[in-house]
């Protein structure tokens, strides 16, 4: 059993929305296919994966460094001990050969796209959904439980755009969502607080509203926002300052008091360890948003969860960034806290397939083999473009 071909496609994201830091209209995603010599139902078994949304495709790193390493490897060196599946950790080690430690930037997402495709591939070889493969690999019982889902959104709309924050959140409520996240930091404090009050009216209370500054604030601005937001009792205050400024995070937590969420821009286990050591995060209180699609894949992400638990945190405090099918299976397979969703934006990757029904603010993965990416109609033409 071997991988005979690897293909990568840079896919533009659809959705001209912006947060306080970036406009997503220029962003792309790497969609990867691992094609094997195993044939089922007259077709080769193919693993699909992608790096996370909200950044850029990594075509150069994948095609010039990682694909050649993987194709040059002895086929047996990539297999699990039983020879019936591929070993994701061995694949990751192979594509990272000759890479220096540190510098967890674009290559972390490039590696993730390939490594996550291995999990899709293994689940298809086992003819089971990916959450079951993931659960078994990490010694857990595979259960297709419905998990809480909330919407990422609350973007800034230009005057005359024909849509308001209130209308956006109401459309999500009409779809069955009950908790909502909105962007702050892209307008003056007074204007943002007006927007928060507007969002609260739709959310139905502070326990159903989160705010996200996307890492924009320096310490004085963070403290000014914390002072205004503190009395509201929101569900959490996300990405307050620079993701590697652990002292700012700690001081903001001390001033704010309420739950804080961070970690989506940490791409390694050692960065997660430093956040735990120095960032002021509190067991049973704060939220960790590391994302396997940005962090070398599930192998490295599982190490992050181990770090959290070894320092007294509950794995249900992990709520991965990025609302898509891959993270849905990871959340269910690892028993994490909740899922994000992006209704109507960040297509073709954002959100779930029609087979994943959202009911009572919870979502359940389908029983399709792998991550079920083939069931997402927006992805279907791109999968065909890869020749799959």
TrEMBL record:
Residues 162-259 form the Mandelate racemase/muconate lactonizing enzyme C-terminal domain. Keywords: Magnesium, Metal-binding, Plasmid. The keyword Metal-binding applies. Its cofactor is Mg(2+). SMART domains: MR_MLE. PANTHER family: ENOLASE SUPERFAMILY, MANDELATE RACEMASE (PTHR13794), MITOCHONDRIAL ENOLASE SUPERFAMILY MEMBER 1 (PTHR13794:SF58). This is Mandelate racemase. It comes from Comamonas endophytica.
